[in-house]
Amino acid sequence: MVLGDWGGHPLYPYTTRVQTAVRDQMVRYALEHHPRFVVSLGDNFYKNGVQSSDDPRFNHTFEQVYSDPSLHIPWYVTVGNHDHHGNVTGQIDYSKKSNRWKFPDLYHKFTSQAANGRFVDVILIDTTVLCDDVYDPHVHFAAVQLAWLEDSLKQSSADYIVVGGHHPVYSVGKHGPSTCLRRKLEPLLHTYGVSVYIAGHDHNVQHIQMLGNTSSLSNRPMDYFIVGSGSKTSSKRFHFDDIPESQVNFFFAKPKDVGGFACFEVSGDTMTVKMIDGLGQLQYKYPINPRK
């Protein structure tokens, strides 16, 4: 399961109606399908992250909310801009206190083998350090991270590669496309035949498909999914004209709706991406073929 921007509220009761509705449907899905893990795409704690690994927000916004035994599976974490307003090291250190919170470093990766024998590499990056202008002192760290990412992609022989970060490369929502990520990240995604890039930041659900350029080793389209409505929703399409309408396959958000999450299911010769809303309705699904 994939969930972004689920960080609740900094004041009591620390949750939102959207967050608990999405949580309920995650439990429903987990009880039926028994997912192996959750990928968290950042903005885990609104609005200013946590202060340390002892911060009570871990209990109020995470442990008490996602408490059902079906969700006591590994949560592989990356962080967003709101998390960087606090102490990100506190979120990394929480990995030592929780059996399911998996956040060993700002960027990390793991491999999962599906029941059909297919391998999936999941690579999580910190796009705030990579591109956010607020964090100019981290320019050196951005270069190190980018080199690590390219090396990880180069080494991968997985059937599917999923790269995840908080900020989208392309979006028609409030924040729109990222010029920085288009320059730094997009060429690597195409060159190494990444299966899908997942992000949050805009509080809706989107699927955008962009063609590669002629210099790419892979000529297949690149699939970008936004899963950013784990705690709040926004139907604003400020950047709808920035991307050709034919390449926006899906957009879902309603101002008074109940958010959503994504499921990645690998079976047979296909990885199917499903978008499920906070009412439990399947809003969208899309098949992705193996890299080879």
Structure characterization notes:
- This protein is of the alpha/beta class and 292 residues long.
- Helices cover 23% and strands 24% of the residues.
- It is globular, with a radius of gyration of 18 Å.
- The mean pLDDT is 92.
List the helices and strands and how they pair.
Blueprint: E1 2-3, H1 17-33, E2 38-40, H2 57-63, E3 75-77, H3 81-84, H4 88-93, E4 101-102, E5 108-113, E6 119-124, H5 127-131, H6 139-155, E7 160-164, H7 179-184, H8 186-191, E8 196-199, E9 205-210, E10 222-227, E11 248-252, E12 260-267, E13 270-277, E14 282-288
Parallel strand pairs: 1-2, 2-3, 3-4, 6-7, 7-8, 8-10
Antiparallel strand pairs: 5-6, 9-10, 9-11, 12-13, 13-14
Summary of the model, kept short:
With 292 residues, the chain is α/β, with parallel strands linked by helices. It has helices spanning 17-33, 57-63, 81-84, 88-93, 127-131, 139-155, 179-184, 186-191; strands spanning 2-3, 38-40, 75-77, 101-102, 108-113, 119-124, 160-164, 196-199, 205-210, 222-227, 248-252, 260-267, 270-277, 282-288.
